[in-house]
Design a protein that fits this description.
Length: 74
């Protein structure tokens, strides 16, 4: 039973950890494709250092969490 719990925990943790290790440009492209597929127009995605996020909406994390991808509606 403990082994099953460990496997389930890893199944949820690994995708999140992998997303943080992705190159920022690749992740930004994937996020933009999802936003575009939902029909959203007039927006900007920016890659910023974590400490410069401010009050903008974070939609992704990359480079081990040192940078964030933020969404701004134009």
């Amino acid at each position: 039973m403990k082994r099953l719990s460990l496997i389930i925990a890893l199944a949820f943790a690994l995708p999140s950890a992998w997303a943080q290790l992705k190159p920022c440009d690749e992740l930004k492209t994937e996020i933009a494709a999802k936003i575009d597929a939902n029909g959203v127009k007039n927006y900007t995605l920016e890659i910023v250092p974590t400490e410069q996020v401010g009050d903008r909406k974070v939609v992704g994390s990359c480079e081990g969490g040192s940078k964030k991808i933020v969404y701004v509606r134009n």
